[in-house]
Amino acid sequence: MHRRPPSRPARVLASTLAVGTLLTCAACSGESKGDGGRADSAADVAASPLAAESTVASPSGGKSASPGTGKSAGVLTPAGAKAALITEADIEDNWTQVKDAASWGDKLLIGKVDVAALLTAKTNAADCQKLLDALYDDTLLGKPSGASALTGFEQNESRLLYQVAAYDRAGLGTSLNWLKTLPVKCDQFTATDSKGGHRTVQVIEDPVPSVGDARQGLQVTVTGTSGTQPVTLTLQLAVVRVGTDAITVTSGGLRGTETDTTKAAVQQGTANLKDVLAGRTPAAQPGNLD
């Protein structure tokens, strides 16, 4: 199986059960995107709200950095990025952490934008293509400039991918502003796959909890077919900036979004990142009781 580098943003995909029904995964067919970047798998999920950026807050002060959070407060280190990840106890319901999240991918997101059918200005086609490619490659915020870590969770036919990473400040701001424009530029468009099949893609705003220094969110719906059966992939994406670092949560699948889980991941993930940057060890959660 081709696997992508472990520096990708977070997101939810349909379970491997859905893959067998809806997608041809690399594990089964040996087919990959073709760039060696990652394996194909069940429906990836992305999408979440768009909210206006707020003033950048400087990292809060705190105790000297603990061994689990890095060497210096305010700077995200590899150890700090790992410590800032969420766990099963941080999100609701019966999510199970997985080891292969870095290889997740969804072929429903592979396609070429049909410029002629674009409802908005034809010049927006490049942005819509960039969105599809970024969702598949997990590069919505671009390539991290520093430390990064990711983890993934599964529940029934849904998946959640979570990433924390350090970015170039200017590039991170540009990426967040770009995401904010997509509900207008790419409100609805058609993508064509390699076999000539058509998929309808819709992009709308989706609220993100008011945490961090800035945040953006989108909900992306991709409707197409698998064989002769209609399928719909719904992706919920939430991005939160804390200084020059950011967390990205992608959740959803073929049965819709997981809004409560996305919200919990955003809130706890932001708190974890702030603790790490302040030199504190994130507090452990008690876990689910049911």
Strand content: 25-35%
Gross geometry: globular
* Beta strands, count: 11
Please write the string of helix (H) and strand (E) elements: EHHEHEEHEEHEEEEEH
Quick overview:
The chain is an alpha+beta fold and 290 residues long. The chain has helices at 16-22, 26-29, 78-83, 125-137, 169-185, 259-277, and strands at residues 12-13, 44-45, 96-98, 112-113, 148-155, 158-166, 188-192, 198-205, 214-226, 229-242, 245-253.
Write up this protein.
This protein is of the alpha+beta class. Helix content is 23%, strand content 26%. The chain is built from six helices and eleven strands. It has helices spanning 16-22, 26-29, 78-83, 125-137, 169-185, 259-277; strands at 12-13, 44-45, 96-98, 112-113, 148-155, 158-166, 188-192, 198-205, 214-226, 229-242, 245-253. It has a nine-stranded antiparallel sheet with strand order 3-5-6-11-10-9-8-7-4. Strands 1-2 form a two-stranded antiparallel sheet. The longest helix has 19 residues, at 259-277.
